[in-house]
Amino acid sequence: MNYLNRSRMLALLVSLFVVFIFTDSSVAQHRRGVAGHNNCVLTNDGRRICGAAAQGRAAPLIDASGNRVARADQATIIGGRPAGCPQRYCGCGLRKYLGIADKRLNLASNWARLFPRVAGPAAGVAAVRSGHVMYIERSVGNGQWLVRDYNSGKGLSRLHVRDVRGYVFVNPHVMLASN
Known about the structure:
This protein is an alpha+beta fold and 179 residues long. The protein has two domains: 1-36; 43-170, endopeptidase fold (from Nostoc punctiforme), CATH 3.90.1720. Helices cover 28% and strands 28% of the residues. It has a six-stranded antiparallel β-sheet with strand order 5-9-8-7-6-10. Strands 1-2 form a two-stranded antiparallel sheet. The protein has a two-stranded antiparallel ribbon with strand order 3-4. A hairpin with a 2-residue loop joins strand 8 and strand 9. The protein starts with a helix and ends in a 9-residue tail after the last strand. Residues 23-39 and 52-59 have low confidence and may be disordered.
């Protein structure tokens, strides 16, 4: 009987020790992240983004106009859903960025229907595929493009580097088709 009590006591102590070790390290990691604010970034519109959306960022690059731009290994958050845009807002966000009033462009597929197509990706054209549209800012080499991507995931809009193979390219800087 005495041996059985010692075995139970030892098992209980080992269990408590394991629970204490795992609980203590997870709490310590959480405290480090919150106290140091090491996992937060400030967006171009002044919002603070923390957590997974902000991890892995290097120092931002600034273009000739003073705007933050993405590097191949990072994305720059440029905001969330613009005011007055629907839940799926890639077309609406891009339309507003380009100063186009036509609300038909809230639907991504209308970009391919209403604007003339161009031969391939280039700075200043829109890349369209089923359910999504984004604006090509410039080439970054090796078939990669810096794009302005509204509703790029998790309710955020980003400037980031993407491969645009499989997209249709249109010129949004010409007069819209009437139908």
